[in-house]
Amino acid sequence: MGFVDKAKNAAEDAIGKAKEVVGDVTDNKDLEAEGKKDQGSAGAKKIGENVKDTFK
């Protein structure tokens, strides 16, 4: 994957972490869960990128 895709995934992970922290601080469990979901999605995409890079 290209640099742009990797940057988008890093941004998605950072946004997910921020949502998780804000949800924790404000006791908003839905926002906290959404942040964890975003981080998981970004992590899965990163694994996919690494697999593709390995087989290039």
From TrEMBL:
It holds the Pfam family CsbD. Residues 5-56 form the CsbD-like domain. Residues 22-39, 46-56 have a biased composition (Basic and acidic residues). Residues 22-56 are annotated as: Disordered. InterPro entries: CsbD, YjbJ_sf. Belongs to the UPF0337 (CsbD) family. This is CsbD-like. It comes from Rhodococcoides kroppenstedtii.
